[in-house]
Amino acid sequence: MNVVLGVSGGIAAYKACELLRRFTESGHSVRVVPTASALNFVGAPTWAALSGNPVSTEVWDSVHEVPHVRIGQHADLLVIAPATADLLARAAHGIADDLLTNTLLTVRCPVVFAPAMHTEMWEHPATQENVATLRRRGALVIEPAVGRLTGADTGKGRFPEPEGVFEFCRRVLARGADAGLADLAGRRVVVSAGGTREPLDPVRFLGNLSSGRQGYALASVAAARGARVTLVAAHTELPDPAGVDLVRVGTAQEMHDAVLAAAADADAVVMAAAVADFRPADYAASKIKKVDGVEPEPLALVRNPDILARISQQRVRTGQVVVGFAAETDDALVNGRAKLARKGCDLLVVNEVGAGRAFGTSDNEAVILGADGTETLVPFGPKTALADLLWDLVATRIG
Ligand code: CTP
Known about the structure:
Layout: E1 2-7, H1 13-25, E2 29-34, H2 44-51, H3 67-73, E3 77-83, H4 85-93, H5 99-106, E4 111-115, H6 119-123, H7 125-136, E5 140-141, E6 145-148, E7 154-158, H8 162-175, E8 188-193, E9 198-201, E10 204-206, H9 213-224, E11 228-233, E12 245-248, H10 252-263, E13 268-271, E14 278-280, E15 301-303, H11 307-313, E16 321-328, H12 332-343, E17 347-352, E18 363-370, E19 375-382, H13 383-397
Parallel strand pairs: 1-2, 1-3, 3-4, 4-5, 8-11, 8-13, 11-12, 13-16, 16-17
Antiparallel strand pairs: 6-7, 9-10, 14-15, 17-18, 18-19
Helix pairs in contact: 1-2, 1-8, 3-5, 4-7, 8-9, 9-13
């Protein structure tokens, strides 16, 4: 595929070198179009050497090739990383005063912006209005990450890990120039992922084998389709996905509080997390010690709140779609139907577990049951394919 990588003048330009490398290593042809100020951070020879293509910033170079039109015509994706506040402003207003902003007006392929700037600049109403304008026109603007910024300060505005931005772009490329590319634009969704941990003492917990992969795939696919995503993540070892608001939790109770708070204004809530049904009745503030010759006390457990059932029963917003997951070892469909009714959700993704399926793998096979009686088979394939299909079903149900 032909990718145009626009780079504007922010310190995160150095991270775009890593992003470029990932594109070229996966076989994409990349044309880098930096702004003049981007070259203050990373020079043209670096971009030319890493991409294997010529680099120019102005429309006046190689005029006979009409580069401001030609570059855009051949592009399958234009990604601007990092996108500064100034670049977002020029893009929102259609200003075309260099090669990159000209290209923005000539491309007809999906456009992804990965903004990076100080929190104050990101939160400024001018920037927020420009972002809203670009999103309204169908561009995908990746929410910046929260974390360390240039200098000692921290906050929202950090460039996400290049791997996350690459994954985001890969999903956009995989969907191609579909009319419904940003079909979740303007939607707010909540996804839970990973396995909760219920502490017994300061060093021990009751946990489970959930890898978080299905929930992370759901979150990143929704972001690539334009949704504002809150990902409530319990234990997982996966890297942070780009473009989602990540809320980390430990226990089922913490997940309950975080999901309920985020669900208040959400169009859809997808509970992909493996939530512990029980927690130890008592927490030992000091490490539990073994005593030779003394048998341990049996472990007393108490029930955790059922988040999925609670969200389904107290719909805070009419038309909100609630989705649950069920891992079943026997009679998957019969048990799944009963669970769907018991929980009161709209859709239930039923996985048959065992034989290397579902937990910890990148592939999955499932049936999605609808409260309206529908049954959708998800053939064996990547968890991102299941995610795409599930969001298709959710999108048609959001009221
Ligand atoms: N879930 C939840 N809160 C809990 C437990 C589970 O929201 N305290 C959600 C999970 O995220 C998942 C679904 O409910 O979407 C799974 O249902 P659950 O009843 O936990 O399944 P099992 O534990 O497998 O049920 P059972 O023991 O009845 O087979």
